[in-house]
From TrEMBL, chain A:
Residues 192-211 are annotated as: Disordered. Coiled coil: none annotated. Residues 42-131 form the PIGA GPI anchor biosynthesis domain. Pathway: Glycolipid biosynthesis; glycosylphosphatidylinositol-anchor biosynthesis. One of its GO terms (biological process) is GPI anchor biosynthetic process. This is Phosphatidylinositol N-acetylglucosaminyltransferase GPI3 subunit. Catalytic subunit in the complex catalyzing the transfer of N-acetylglucosamine from UDP-N-acetylglucosamine to phosphatidylinositol, the first step of GPI biosynthesis. Residues 214-347 form the Glycosyl transferase family domain. The keyword Transferase applies. Keywords: Glycosyltransferase, GPI-anchor biosynthesis, Membrane, Transferase, Transmembrane, Transmembrane helix. Its EC number is 2.4.1.198. One of its GO terms (molecular function) is phosphatidylinositol N-acetylglucosaminyltransferase activity.
UniProtKB/TrEMBL annotation, chain B:
InterPro entries: Plno_GlcNAc_GPI2. It comes from Penicillium bovifimosum. Pathway: Glycolipid biosynthesis; glycosylphosphatidylinositol-anchor biosynthesis. GO terms for biological process: GPI anchor biosynthetic process. The keyword Transmembrane helix applies. Belongs to the PIGC family. Pfam families: GPI2. This is Phosphatidylinositol N-acetylglucosaminyltransferase. The lineage of its organism: Eukaryota, Fungi, Dikarya, Ascomycota, Pezizomycotina. It is found in: Membrane. Keywords: GPI-anchor biosynthesis, Membrane, Transmembrane, Transmembrane helix. It is a multi-pass membrane protein. The keyword Calcium does not apply. The chain crosses the membrane at residues 397-414, 426-445, 451-475.
Length: 486, 500
């Protein structure tokens, strides 16, 4: 059955980034599957009010005070009146929040639970446990997720992290990876094939793979923001050694950030300007055009929840060299990647190995695009997300959703299906910590009182119901992908 | 969430214990963490078995504890590692339909929220870098702090004695100077003995003679702070002066530096220049570096030693007299400030001195201190400058400043060197300081020899208890240490700075 879903996050277009495009792609594919989806975000400069995007995706830009890097000021309650209004107008059943640093998302999940709606949370990032900022963020996440119906993580490492940070039941956390729009990341030589032709089978590649001779130039592409946690220091240290030990090699580096100066200094000190091309920051649409100029994609990041960019690179037919951190080892199969430890020596070694492998034509990079297309698609992500929605709304039984293991003394316990009774919610929040638990309970009680107040002073009957965007008929095979999981 | 009953032979498929409510079930939280990962140190090691042998023998115990896990008694153990083994049966049964892989690119026949009990939180490490403390080494290390606190207490008591006219400032400064002179002679002997030892395997000796006369002012400000900083600025990064001789490539600088340093030891008065003109410190740093590094020419062994001693004495007297001249200015410098403010300020400055003092042993530990070591010395000197304005005469001011130079500037260097040279001497010095400080407090509070003795005894007992108590406290706090490390933490890049 179709659901009315509200995606809530601080991060959405016109700002561009991984979370933004995730929300957009997921929403539009969910709309394709027959659901109604709206996006609630804060007002960006020059972007306020209600907007429609392609496919009838409706965006509410709520005016809100932005404090830092497009994150709104966490006020806990002040978002409630307008949120309630939007939710009632649109007849929302499921609130789906994105990104743990977004205070909009956390508040929306709290209010939605108060209003008796099902909630889902998607975590896109990894956090440690050591520093003070992480501790604070983790407490807030615990507050957000204490009462959430289901959480989605983008990788298994991310799931482990979220389960630990928010003390969740692991069965209430699903792993649904990001995806790429493979059509936007085609290699140069790619020919569009007929849709009925089987994909990825070895005999259907029309062109012979490009042969790289032992002396042909190899181009290594790096596209990343030049920050410490993206491993720019490793990159700076490794570039001269890679270039010294591998003749006929050049670099293309796109991206900007605080470490750009260090990079330029290194180039000047080693006089490598003719071998390393710095492009500055590129727009997401241009990423493909940069990638197809290279043969190897080097990704020296120090932490990464999923690493969409390496999937994009592989889709462009690049051989990927990346550090074995975070969720990266789960993302691509062995034959597309060379892993390195986050050490300078190992990165140099791995890159040299990758260059040697390419020079000996051992790697069939021409098949990468079709293989990646098979692995990741937003259609698949939407189908798997839909199953989560079905699970939390009770359209598939809890036994099926959470797993039913007869004879093991294990039943789907009542607490996984989160009841809306205030006392049950308070119980869940109370377990969050000695002081934090009481504080969270106070917040929940106040939120409930505000809700009661709003129901009295702004009764539901006075709120107009918005008309839905006229939809085309949902695709007939929309449930097939879901069936395959059962 | 219902907590799974712990006696159940077939636990639920996902019993990884990360859920607080589940943890608060039948298991007692104390025992829940008793078997995290046998290959890693856990904080429990700190108080259950201090030796590392437990780690080595852990796999044997591990099997036994696993057996007990399957029985009824092991119900306490709820760590992920243990439970993973425990539910191995469930995992094996699942393998029939194709083993679950921790990969995202494979389409697997498992639901998205499937949690594999064998690999879930597999890479989780708890307290991987915890080094359990032992009691006695901890107590022994705390003597360094005790020494410094005692010397601060002695200084404060001396000041109170001077202000209340119980003690003559001249006698204090005389005793202090005698002590400093004795300390310097000892220190000088150690340095040159080591120097002589190290001179065999070295061709050229660097003498600082060409610069040393012009260095007199620079050397006057050779507080341990400056020296350690200039050391840090070198690649050898050795902390504290005496240690730089301990045998590496900086030997070349040794002669020069020790010369400078012996000057500064002798020229006690030199340091007053620092208090009067704090800004001189920064500028002198540069000249100090210049004097240390570039002089490389061959010179005979004994001659520079004596010559530098002579220069030291010369500059000592120079600075001594300039301090004498500055005393009236220092006396009236903060005279207009109310006494309340002076007491409060000096208290804070001395506390700052104690907290930012570099207690490191000098063996490469310098890089770990957060504050520059000069902060501590400067705070102490400023405290004494501020206090000096409450004194009645120029002689008093001069004596107090000189004494503070000795206590805060030179004494720490001597203590650090003594600790390196002889542990017995270090302990004896600690004992002496504790007794003197206790006695000084006793005299200050009520006066008379009896009070001094009572104070000494009480102070010693109290110090012993505090040292033991704090060490024990720190060890007992170790069990609350819970560092969780996993693949989600940002990796630490390992970079060789070869292109610098």
């Amino acid at each position: 059955m179709p659901y009315n879903i509200a995606m809530v996050s601080d991060f959405f277009f016109p700002q561009s980034g991984g979370i933004e495009s995730h929300i957009y792609q997921l929403s539009s594919k969910l709309i394709d599957r027959g659901h109604k989806v709206i996006v609630i975000t804060h007002a960006y400069k020059g972007r306020t009010g209600v907007r429609y995007l392609t496919n009838g995706l409706k965006i509410y830009h709520v005016p809100f005070f932005v404090i830092y890097r497009e994150t709104t000021f966490p006020t806990v309650f002040s978002f409630f009146p307008i949120f309630r209004n939007i939710v009632i107008r649109e007849g929302i059943e499921i609130v789906h929040g994105h990104a743990s640093l977004s205070s909009f998302c956390g508040e929306a999940i709290l209010h939605a639970r108060t209003m008796g709606l099902r909630t889902v949370f998607t975590d896109h990032s990894l956090f440690g446990f050591a520093d003070a900022a992480s501790i604070l963020t983790n407490k807030l996440l615990k507050f957000t997720l204490s009462d959430v119906d289901h959480a989605i993580c983008v990788s298994h490492t991310c799931k482990e992290n979220t389960v630990l940070r928010a003390s969740l039941d692991p069965l209430m956390v699903s792993v649904i990876p990001n995806a790429v729009v493979a059509e936007n990341f085609c290699p140069l030589s790619h020919t569009t094939r007929a849709p009925d032709q089987p994909l990825g089978s070895p005999h259907d590649a029309p062109m012979s793979p490009r042969q790289i001779g032992p002396d042909d130039p190899i181009t290594i592409v790096v596209i990343s923001r030049l920050f410490y946690n993206k491993g720019t220091d490793l990159l700076i240290a490794a570039i001269p050694r890679i270039l010294a030990s591998n003749p006929n090699t050049r670099f293309i580096i796109a991206g900007s950030g605080p470490k750009a100066i260090d990079l330029e200094q290194m180039l000047e000190r080693n006089v490598l300007q003719d071998k390393v091309e710095l492009l500055g920051s590129v727009r997401h649409e241009e990423v493909r055009d940069v990638m197809v100029r290279g043969d190897i994609y080097l990704h020296p990041s120090l932490t990464e929840a999923f690493g969409t960019v390496i999937v994009e690179a592989a889709s462009c037919g690049l051989y990927v060299v990346c550090t074995r951190v975070g969720g990266i080892p789960e993302v691509l199969p062995q034959h597309m990647t060379t892993f390195a430890k986050p050490e300078e020596d190992d990165i140099v070694l791995a890159t040299s190995k990758a260059i040697a492998a390419l020079r000996s034509n051992k790697v069939r990079t021409d098949r990468f695009h079709d293989q990646v297309k098979m692995m990741y698609s937003w259609r698949d992500v939407a189908a798997r997300t839909e199953r989560v929605y079905e699970g939390i709304t009770g359209d598939i039984s809890p036994e099926e959703f959470y797993g039913y293991y007869p004879g093991q003394g294990w039943e789907a316990s009542g607490d996984r299906v989160r009841s809306f009774a205030l006392i049950d919610r308070l119980k869940r929040y109370y377990g969050c910590g000695v002081w934090a638990g009481k504080l969270f309970c106070l917040c929940v009680v106040i939120d409930f009182l505000i809700y009661v107040f709003l129901e009295m002073w702004f009764p539901r009957a006075n709120i107009d119901i918005a008309r839905s965007w006229p939809k085309k008929q949902p695709a007939s095979n929309s449930r097939d992908a879901t069936k395959s999981f059962r | 969430m219902t907590s799974p009953s712990s006696t159940d032979p077939f636990p639920p498929p996902i019993p990884v214990d990360t859920h607080p409510r589940r943890a608060s079930g039948s298991k007692s939280p104390e025992f829940e963490r008793s078997l995290p990962d046998p290959n890693r140190l856990a904080p429990e090691d700190a108080y259950f078995a201090p030796s590392l042998s437990r780690v080595r023998s852990a796999p044997v115990n591990y099997g036994e504890s696993l057996q007990s896990l399957n029985g009824d008694s092991g119900a306490h153990i709820g760590s992920a590692a243990a439970l993973r083994k425990r539910v191995g049966g469930a995992g094996r049964r699942r393998r029939r339909k194709g083993a679950w892989k921790k990969l995202l690119w494979v389409k697997q026949s498992y639901p998205d929220n499937y949690t594999d009990t064998e690999t879930f939180l597999d890479h989780l490490q708890r307290n991987p870098r915890v080094r359990p403390y032992d009691f006695w080494p901890l107590v022994a290390d705390s003597t360094v702090i005790v020494q410094h606190v005692c010397s601060v207490v002695i200084f404060v008591c001396c000041f109170i004695g001077i202000v209340q006219d119980r003690v003559s400032p001249v006698s204090i400064v005389c005793w202090g100077s005698v002590g400093t002179a004795v300390g310097w002679i000892l220190w000088d002997n150690w340095i040159w003995k080591e120097h002589a030892d190290s001179v065999q395997d070295r061709n050229g000796i660097t003498g600082g003679d060409d610069n040393s006369s012009s260095d007199s002012f620079a050397s006057a400000i050779n507080t341990p702070a400056n020296i350690s900083q200039s050391d840090d600025s070198k690649s050898s990064a050795i902390h504290g002066l005496g240690l730089s001789i301990a045998g590496n490539e900086s030997k070349e600088n040794l002669a020069c530096r020790s010369a400078n340093f012996s000057e500064s030891i002798d020229a006690v008065a030199d340091l007053t220049a620092q208090s009067a003109v704090p800004s001189a410190l920064g500028s002198s740093m540069g000249s100090m570096d210049a004097s240390v590094s570039p002089n490389t020419h061959r010179i005979s062994m004994l001659s520079p030693r004596n010559r530098q001693r002579l220069t030291t004495v010369k500059s000592a007297f120079l600075i001594y007299f300039s301090l004498l001249g500055l005393s009236p200015i220092l006396k009236s410098l903060t005279k207009s400030t109310a006494s309340d403010s002076i007491w409060a300020m000096s208290c804070w400055l001395l506390i700052m001195n104690i907290f930012s003092f570099d207690y490191g042993s000098g063996e490469g530990a310098g890089a770990t201190t957060k504050f520059p070591a000069s902060l501590s010395t400067n705070a102490a000197v400023m405290a004494s400058t501020v206090l000096a304005s409450r004194l009645p005469s120029t002689t008093h001011v001069f004596s107090l400043m000189l004494f503070s130079m000795e206590v805060f500037g030179l004494f720490p260097i001597f203590r650090r060197q003594l600790r390196q040279k002889s542990w017995t001497g270090h302990i004896l010095l600690t004992l002496a300081l504790v007794i003197i400080a206790g006695g000084a407090v006793g005299v200050t509070l009520s006066g008379g020899w009896a009070a001094a003795i009572i104070g000494s005894v009480l102070g010693s007992i109290l110090t012993a208890f505090v040292m033991g108590g704090c060490s024990w406290w720190l060890i007992s706090l170790q069990k609350y240490k819970n560092v969780v490390i996993g693949p989600w933490d940002p990796a630490r890049p390992i970079i060789r700075r070869h292109w610098n």
